[in-house]
Amino acid sequence: MGHDSHAGARLGAWIFRGSLGFALLVALTVACATAVRDGTPVQGWWDERGPVIPHEKFPADCSLCHEGQGWDRIRADFVFEHEKETGVALEGAHRAAECLRCHNDRGPVEMFAARGCGGCHEDPHRSQMGPACESCHDQATWRPGELIATHARTRFPLVGAHAAAACWQCHPGAQTGNFARADTSCESCHAQDLARATTPDHAAQGWTSDCQRCHVPVAWDGAAFTHGFWPLSGAHRAASCAECHANNVFTGTSSQCIDCHQAEYDTAADPDHTTAAYTFPTNCAQCHSTSTWLGANFSHAGITSSCATCHQSDYQATTSPNHAQAGFPLSCQQCHSTSSWSVANFNHAGISSGCSSCHLPDYQATTNPNHAQAGFSTSCESCHTSTSNWSQDNWSHPDFPIQSGRHAGIACATCHTQPSNYSFFNCTNCHAHRQSEMNGEHEDVGGYTFGPQTCYQCHPNGNE
Prior knowledge:
Layout: H1 7-15, H2 20-29, E1 36-37, E2 40-41, E3 66-67, E4 70-74, H3 82-86, H4 99-102, H5 109-113, H6 147-151, H7 186-189, H8 191-196, H9 202-205, H10 241-244, H11 257-267, H12 308-317, H13 323-326, H14 356-365, H15 371-374, H16 412-415, H17 435-441, H18 455-458
Antiparallel strand pairs: 1-2, 3-4
């Protein structure tokens, strides 16, 4: 018996000259596939598959399909293009199915195909899921796909932790294909969680239903309870219920800050809220926010009294200058700002009297030169022009450069030896020359006279 690689095509051409319905049945009976079931090739024969489909209308040439050595084997080179020859495409797992799975002695295959999937596949869902198997299953695998999207079209979409739950946790018969309608109330599945909820005690409060009022499917913990008349914000959102609702009492709880934060109020030390000169109110919200207890936003505009109400001790302790002794006013804001107490901005232009009104002790204590003994003017600004440094003056000798050269920088008392009379000065106090010697050296100098005050006329800067 010879081999013909186009045997399937020849068979198909012959079949389509007869009845199309029976041709489809016959063609699928001998369709070729490569998969092996139970150790037997698909195109082979297995007694347990039942009786062979009648061959009365098959071609008389058996070698088109069978091998001569054994009529229970189909030729290895047999090729049958199912879609081309019958108009029915085999897809997915159906491509590898044994021919006799569909083509057997039950009857014409088109009769079963008209019933859809249920024509060949038993319905494990007991008709509870409807006849449209393709809404969950495809031909590639019997395992259903896109279950989350499919479930979204029901009355209970799967979101959050529910999307990861096994089907049988809500549908007890799911493992055997029984997806009977399930109770969608939270307590039907979460009865044990409800029993364990003791902070706060849900059962004692009567919170045994409508869990979605506080809980979300993402996580059971961290309930998002709408606090209604007193919204929770900032750190209050992280506080446990029991911190405000003691002993599981949820009615009549005060909304006043001090009722929960009395300890923080009593221990506040910077500033001391209870013993300071200014007694702070117990309405904490005036300064504090719910984000953090520290970093209060205190508004000085709310205090009508003067600075000294809070800063009297700072005023009395100030020594540079001594505010109390000098009689400085208590309106601290004239010199001080709220940024720093130690950096004052004193405006001298606001004082109409002379410098000595404040600096008379400095005038009297000055010894080089002795201002009081010498009778210096108390108009300090005539020599002292800088307000940043008292010791830097701007005084110069009139009419001669006695402060230049070798005389620069010497103390006033070196030349002015009479403190009460600064008009007198003595050159020979330092330059002690004998008169006879000096007279000889100045014989050719006209108008020369020897005396304690005449040297500077020719030697103002100390040079010869």
